[in-house]
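Sample entry (160 residues):
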Amino acid sequence: MLLAAIQPSVLRRCSRFLPCYQDAEEACQDVLMQVARNIGGFEGRSKFSTWLHVIIANGSRQTYRTLKRRAAEQGYGEMPVDVADARTTSVIAGSRLDLLDALERLESTRAELVAPMVLRDICQLDYKEIATHLGIPEGTVKSRIHQARGQVREYLLAGL
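Predicted structure, serialized as tokens:
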């Protein structure tokens, strides 16, 4: 019953990350599976919605990495030739893909900066919720978000 109740919200939130509806559906299914597997691990230190946001953010980013890897393995490079590159067909969708690429790059160099930024800027959680969930002081959350935004801005301006 829980999965059925949260599914529409999870799909909507996955769509914030992934511009293609089918990709968002795939991420949604992965997220629902993660929730089903890990519900016993929810300790109640933060709100359920915060815990769910983290799973959605991680699941959506993982789906994006998987799709990108599949495309590369099939010899398409970044995108399959029969699928239009969202960067050239939609400013919003292209911006999302560029942001996901920038987050992936940031994660490889400063992984501790990614979660606070994603939770604040994409999941739209307040600083206190983020601090509680991550178990770090609110000032540290703000500092990491500031640093992450600067790094992501540099990556985006440099064209990755």
